[in-house]
Specification:
- By secondary structure, this protein is α/β, with parallel strands linked by helices.
- It has a domain of about 250 residues: TIM Barrel (Alpha-Beta Barrel).
- It has 14 helices and nine strands.
- Strands 1, 2, 3, 4, 5, 6, 7, 8 and 9 form a nine-stranded parallel sheet that branches.
- Strand 5, helix 11 and strand 6 form a beta-alpha-beta unit.
- Helix 9 crosses helix 10 and helix 12 runs parallel beside helix 13.
- The protein is globular and about 100 Å long.
- The chain starts with a helix and ends with a helix.
- The structure holds zinc ion (ZN).
- Zinc ion binds next to strand 1.
């Protein structure tokens, strides 16, 4: 305690002469004989302000391109917590109606506030500094934006856009995306699902045979394609996710190798969603490897939400991966047509309330039969069927990057 009092006393003693000295400054400059000193000081201040402004202008391009060079995990802290982080344990479909505003959100970064330019032209000494500034300041942001696109974009349009099934979404009409999972291994049901009226989103298991042929048929029928990536469930002994699944016991390079194997099984997909995965989708290091890869390859992610506290969608958004989450499973009771119809009504209710809904079903006979009847009906009643790519959220932190890609693609 004593040393604290000592410190306070020392500070007080030091402050007295300092304040006295400060209060003498205005009197010094107001004296007529010191007017030249006043003008000289003003000129000096203006020169420093001008030089600071010039340095700031030169530094701007480097500052804008920095986030692009690190399109991966770097923008994590800048993401919008409202969009990207659902409360743990709460399924997304329980969210408030305001979520419509979150669809395809692209938030351009506001330009940094310009510093005050040297406004006083009275002091001639400022002129040499301002003359050294770039001649045409307004042209600079445009040229740095072009540089941004050239550096960050290997292709005209990322695959999640280039492979998307085009759809027009009339304002005010509720939008529904129906995803059929687990396609591929069972050929008969897969072909029946492909025959449904679309556009649907078809998620194929990567270990199935004949995938180029089956997925080609699905795409030709107007459906959007996804890879249904097997991930470790909690009860691995009783729920086998299949060969090449992503497991929490793998090393991170093994996770990436298995993902890349799956991504090479067929072409024309917009992204992936998880098959099972109640264990893997809460394992952040593994998810980070997956999302980094998807980010680099320009693919989207749909979180099947096989567990309430899945981290997958928020991790995807934090890596700048366009993402969405499943709202409703159609056929948890897959042998009960009445239960499936009940789920379809819930999809409609949610789409009416919130503007959009994403449902996942499987190629079970009762599901396919219900969908064959419901799909034409629901469209006749004013609902718009859309592929999943129409309902992903773009990460606000990477919004300028996604927007740059879109603008680039739209121009060609
Ligand atoms: Zn599945």
């Amino acid at each position: 305690m004593r040393w604290e009092r000592e410190l306070i006393r020392a500070a007080r003693e030091a402050a007295v002469p300092a304040s006295r000295w400060l209060s003498s400054i205005p009197a010094f400059f107001l004296a007529p004989r010191n007017r030249m000193a006043l003008l000289g000081t003003l000129a000096l201040v203006l020169m420093i302000a001008g030089a600071t402004w010039a340095i700031w202008r030169l530094a701007v391009p480097g500052r804008e391109s920095a986030p692009v060079a690190m399109a991966g995990p770097a923008p994590v802290p800048a993401q919008d917590p409202v969009l990207a982080v659902p409360p743990p344990g709460v399924p997304r479909h329980a969210e408030e109606p305001g979520e419509t505003a979150g669809v395809a959100v692209i938030v351009p970064e506001p330009p940094p506030a310009p510093p005050a330019p040297p406004s006083d032209q009275g002091a001639g000494t400022v002129l040499p500094v301002t003359a050294g500034l770039p001649p045409d300041p307004p042209a600079e942001p445009a040229s740095s934006a072009e540089g941004l696109a050239a550096v960050a974009l290997p292709a005209a349009s990322p695959p999640w856009k280039a492979n998307a099934v085009p759809v027009s979404l009339p304002a005010g009409q509720p939008v529904i995306a129906i995803v059929i999972d687990d396609l591929g291994p069972t050929r008969g049901p897969t072909l029946k699902a492909i025959a449904l009226p679309g556009p649907l989103t078809m998620a194929f298991l990567p270990y199935a045979d004949d995938l180029p042929n089956l997925t080609g048929k699905a795409r030709a029928a107007g459906h959007e394609l996804m890879i249904h990536l097997p991930m470790e469930p909690i009860d691995l002994r009783h729920n086998n996710p299949g060969p090449q699944a992503l497991l929490t016991t793998l090393t991170l390079p093994e996770v990436r190798a298995r993902l890349d194997w799956a991504l090479g099984r067929f072409e024309g997909y917009v992204g992936i969603n998880n098959h099972m995965g109640s264990a893997f989708s809460t394992w952040e290091p593994g998810l980070a490897v997956v999302m980094q890869d998807l980010s680099e390859k320009g693919l989207l992610f749909l979180d099947s939400r096989t567990i309430g506290n899945s981290e997958a969608e928020s991790t995807a958004l934090s890596f700048g991966v366009p993402a969405a989450g499943r709202d409703i499973f159609l056929d948890n009771e897959f042998e009960d047509p009445a239960a499936i119809w009940g789920q379809l009504r819930q999809v409609e209710q949610l789409a009416l309330k919130r503007g959009h809904a994403i449902a996942i079903g499987h190629p079970h006979p009762a599901t396919l039969q219900a969908l064959a009847q419901w799909l034409p009906e629901v469209q006749a009643r004013g609902f718009v069927l859309a592929p999943v790519s129409a309902l992903v959220k773009a990460d606000p932190a990477a919004g300028h990057l996604v927007q740059a890609k879109g603008a680039d693609g739209d121009l060609r």
